[in-house]
Amino acid sequence: MWSYALISLVAVVNAALVKENIHGGECVCTNTAGVNARDAAGTSSHVTEVLASGTCAKINGGILTADGYTWYQLQYAGKLIWVAGNYLDVHDQQSCSGQCPAASRAMACALLEKANAGVLSLARVHPSGVQDNAFAYNNIRDMCNGLKASRSHYSCSTCPTGTPGGTVCLTHDLLAYLTALVSKGHVIVNELAGACHTCGSRHYNGQAVDLHNDARSTEYLQTCTAMHGWGQNEGDHIHCQFYD
Q1: CATH code of the region 12-96
Q2: How far apart are CA 139 and CA 224, in angstroms?
Q3: pTM attached to this predicted model
Q4: CA gap 192, 218 in Å, rounded
Q5: What single DSSP character describes residue 196?
Q6: Taking the domains of the chain in order of start, what are their residue ranges?
Q7: For 9-64, how does the pLDDT look when each residue is reduced to its tens digit (9 = 90+)?
Q8: Is residue 153 classed exposed, middle or buried when 0-12, 13-18 and 19+ CB atoms within 10 A define those classes?
Q9: DSSP label at 142?
Q10: What is the four-CA torsion angle of 89, 91, 97, 99, rounded to 10 degrees?
Q11: ∠ at Cα 155 (231, 120), nearest 5°?
Q12: What are the E-state strand segments in 67-157?
């Protein structure tokens, strides 16, 4: 039986899926990136979705054991999928409500105010030229409006199978990082949850940002590290990402 683990972040009830404690309608979320969702229980079943970390859905009621895993049938995006319990944690119902945490929404609204005041520049275009709702500006605007941030859905050389699409909550750590930078001066944000990066990029988990590489680049990297993230100078931009 999996052990319980209390986590203080993102309103987690517990981090152990215990078969006898699960019932229909319970909210569960993926605990890692790249989780295969299948059309039936079993590792040989067709993969219909690849879920990002933090993707939440409700248990539909089906629980089966196959190929060494306990599989749970979930209601996701208007259809039924099967996911192995190893990759699921139990969360509260708010996580399945389609809403992001209130604190994250408040930070997004504060950042949107900074953008409207000209202190923060949020890109309204992708380097690829693809038009969608996943521009940095749209991500912050939608979070402020109580929605999740859109992710891009197209392919490129670094993700030939295509980026995930859908939506994600920008994490508290990421928004706090941007807030800290903006408090010290103008910042240009190139990308948040949008564009085409490597397929498993933390951008698609709402945990990464690409900043325009300017005179503050060293500060961006140092602040990223100080706030327990990982940063890298990628030439035309500074990448900073955070972890669960």
Answers
A1: 2.30.30.40
A2: 20
A3: 0.63
A4: 20
A5: -
A6: 12-96, 102-241
A7: 233 333 345 444 567 788 887 777 678 999 999 999 999 888 766 677 889 888 89
A8: middle
A9: H
A10: -90
A11: 45
A12: 69-76, 79-84, 88-91, 120-122, 149-150
